[in-house]
Design goal:
six-stranded mixed β-sheet, 5 helices, globular, binds CU-O-CU linkage, binds copper (II) ion
Length: 486
């Protein structure tokens, strides 16, 4: 029996990699260069179905998972900015599903939220999603039905929207990152919806994969400039990645370009659902190896994700490239702060929050009704929407279409929350009142315990949009609401 208590799972280290992965072959998760082609619609099919997948690698049983097209993660979909995209989704599961195109600014009816934007896709049923990507960048897709379990069993994939004219890099790597809770026989551990996890950090696993395998090494060449697309598709795990001996430059978060900058402390912080595009000049020594580590949870929970292994050959260039790395801006409307509507979103509940224990607080008298609904453990502004969709609850706010909304997340809890808004990208303005540099935009913002984070966006996309924590256990247990743009 694997425990699901989030803070007592064994740390992942090279030792447990040996346990799970063994001698993974020298792996380079390389992607082909940008497709250049005629402007015909990008059409694809996605078959949602169970499959056995070699997640833990050679020497271990295959893992029975829920997949898109039989692979974990689902296939990387590459589409073009401004070119219509269509996906026919067929549900081969024994339960309802949908596909949500996380981070895309698309028409509400294509957003994939069952009971809000579409009926669920029943077992054996199908649904066609069609939209035209407005923004180039790194996005992802996943179900919005029983999301904790469906993502936790494998349903997630990267969606890349290529720039019309991509800036030059020597190579592009895509790292779909996922965290799994595996049993000793390499199967997905049961216990989704464990109350203890839900009150705390969520379902944190014991195996982290890159592109569906436990990676030993990633091959690189001295001198090359790599664009690395990172996507944290975990149900709950936050990651803080460091590249030993290297100076990664962040050029985009959540698909939206920012001012190129080295992250504070050299640490790339990615809450669940967040993406970062980084540029790394491979200035290490030929033949050497450099560790990529994740030290977010500290101490016993630190682990080495993989190693960059340099080819012994001579550097492909003498000096680092001095070509600019800035990505072209997407057509996002700039928020007008002078006329913004300001709304505060208090994040409440969870374990050890003080509030949760106080009589008359979240778990006490006044909140009991809301907290009881669907087993809620969390709330926003005192209200809890549980599960995967609003299920009849009215929107918390109605935003005036075309106006700027300033959302202030006030985290009153003792836990981290990657807060995600559908249908829009927001600008991250301030943390605890201090301006955020580098023009950072996102669809998901990681809010630290007790932190206050201001974001703003033009509410230009009509419809009902989910706003929720992307720690799936938190979402399911009440950290979710709906904003209406009308
Ligand atoms: Cu990644 Cu509500 O979604
Ligand atoms: Cu989303
Ligand atoms: Cu949360």
């Amino acid at each position: 029996m694997t425990t699901t208590h989030s803070l007592s799972v064994p740390a992942i280290g090279r030792r447990s990699f040996a346990l799970w992965g063994g001698a993974a072959a020298l792996s380079s998760i390389a992607q082909r260069p940008t497709l250049a082609g005629p402007a015909v619609p990008d059409a694809t099919r996605l078959h949602v179905r169970p499959a056995r997948v070699p997640l833990a690698g050679a020497g271990h049983p295959e893992t029975l998972m829920w997949t898109y097209d039989g692979t974990v993660p689902g296939p990387v979909r590459r589409v073009r900015q401004g070119v219509p995209f269509q996906a026919l989704v067929e549900n081969g599961l024994a339960e309802d599903t949908t596909v949500h195109w996380h981070g895309m600014r698309l028409p509400n009816a294509m957003d994939g939220v069952p009971g809000l934007t579409q009926p669920p896709i029943r077992p054996g049923g199908q649904f066609t999603y069609a939209f035209t990507p407005q923004d180039a960048g790194t996005f992802w897709y996943h179900p919005h039905a029983n999301g904790l379990e469906q993502i936790g069993r494998g349903l997630a994939g990267v969606l890349i929207v290529d720039e019309a004219e991509p800036p030059p890099f020597d190579r592009e790597l895509v790292w779909p990152l996922s965290d799994w809770q595996l049993t000793e026989d390499a199967q997905i551990a049961p216990g989704f919806g464990n109350r203890m996890s839900a009150m705390m950090a969520g379902r944190i696993g014991n195996v982290v994969t890159i592109d569906g395998r436990v990676p030993d090494r990633v091959a690189v060449r001295a001198g090359e400039r790599v664009r690395l697309r990172l996507a944290n598709m975990s149900v709950a795990r936050t990651m803080a990645l460091r590249f030993e001996g290297h100076r990664p430059v962040v050029v985009a978060y959540d698909g939206q370009p920012c001012d190129p900058h080295e992250p504070a402390d050299g640490r790339i912080l990615l809450g669940a659902a967040m993406r970062a595009d980084i540029v790394i000049d491979m200035q290490g020594d030929p033949g050497r190896r450099y560790r990529v580590t994740d030290d977010f949870y500290g101490d016993r929970m630190n682990y080495t994700l993989t190693e960059l292994e340099y080819d012994p050959g001579a550097p492909i260039r003498k000096h680092p490239s001095d070509a600019p790395v800035r990505l072209p801006r997407n057509p996002l409307p700039e928020p007008d702060l002078a006329t913004a509507e300001r709304h505060e979103m208090a994040l409440q509940g969870g374990g050890m929050s003080g509030m949760g224990m106080r009589s008359g607080g979240m778990m006490g008298g006044g909140m009991m009704g809301a907290m009881g609904r669907g087993g809620a453990l969390w709330a926003m502004n005192g209200a809890s929407m549980t599960g995967d969709s609003p299920d009849g609850m009215p929107p918390m706010l109605t935003l005036t279409r075309g106006r700027t909304t300033r959302l202030v997340f006030r985290n009153e809890t003792a836990w981290w929350h990657p807060m995600h808004l559908h249908g829009h990208s927001f600008k991250v303005l301030a943390r605890n009142g201090a301006p955020v540099p580098h023009q950072v935009w996102g669809d998901t913002v990681l809010v630290a315990p007790r932190e206050v984070v201001d974001v703003a966006f033009v509410a230009d996309n009509p419809g009902d949009w989910m706003l929720h924590c992307h720690v799936m256990d938190h979402q399911t247990a009440g950290l979710m609401t709906v904003l209406r743009v009308a």
